Amino acid sequence: MRKIMFLMIFVALVGCETAQKQDSGSNQKLSVIVDDLSNQTGEAEYNNVLSSVSPDFSSAIQKTGKFIIVERKRLGKVLEELEFNASGLVSPKSMKKIGEITGADAVLFIELNEVNYSDTDSDRVLYTSTNQEMKIRLSAKLVDTESAEIISNVSKSYECENSVKYIFSDLKINKKIEKSEILSKLISDSAEDFTREIARKTSTK
After folding, report:
1. DSSP 66
2. Over the stretch 23-75, which tens digit does the pLDDT of each residue have?
3. pLDDT digits (tens, 9 = 90+) for 88-142
4. Residue 105: φ, ψ to 5°
5. What is the domain class of 29-201 according to CATH?
6. Domain coordinates in residue numbering, the chain
7. First CA to last CA across the chain, in angstroms?
8. Closest CA to 27 of 61, 65, 58, 57
9. Nearest to 98 by CA among 33, 54, 38, 149
10. Residues 30, 205: contact at Cβ < 8 Å?
């Protein structure tokens, strides 16, 4: 009888331990380096904007609870010297080097692919209005440092508008916003939604 009870307790403990290991495995987080946003629009005027908003994506990706952020500064100039293959993807040799230096599981590359901006004037009886509209497209690839394979990729568009009114073509009810300021705010505001989508599409190891 005692042997049977001992066996049952032992099986229960082993079952408990196995369940705990499975739970801990399912909650495993990827350690990730977030590269600075890359300007793929062909418009150099956006470079300064992207430099200023890049840190927002590191903060946002960490808030998803699915990743551990590895400090980019540990790489020095390694990211700037990455080798790309004919398909535009980072070479396995370069990715492996990043993994060896930092211990990171993956690197997140985020690009600004498109910026469409317009402002339209409309004359009214008592005022003139200008409507500013902007639409952008962001894309991202999460690349494994061991194999250089893409773990997940995301592409999403975001837009906003600002309406400016001038009473008697002189007195401003609200101000026209600089194009760079609109872009900065739009990218920054999209960071959390965009990184949640990355987290949603990423399967942890």
Report:
1. S
2. 444 468 999 999 889 999 999 999 999 999 999 999 999 999 999 999 877 66
3. 566 788 888 888 888 899 999 999 999 999 988 776 666 677 889 999 999 999 9
4. -80, -30
5. alpha beta
6. 29-201
7. 43
8. 65
9. 33
10. yes
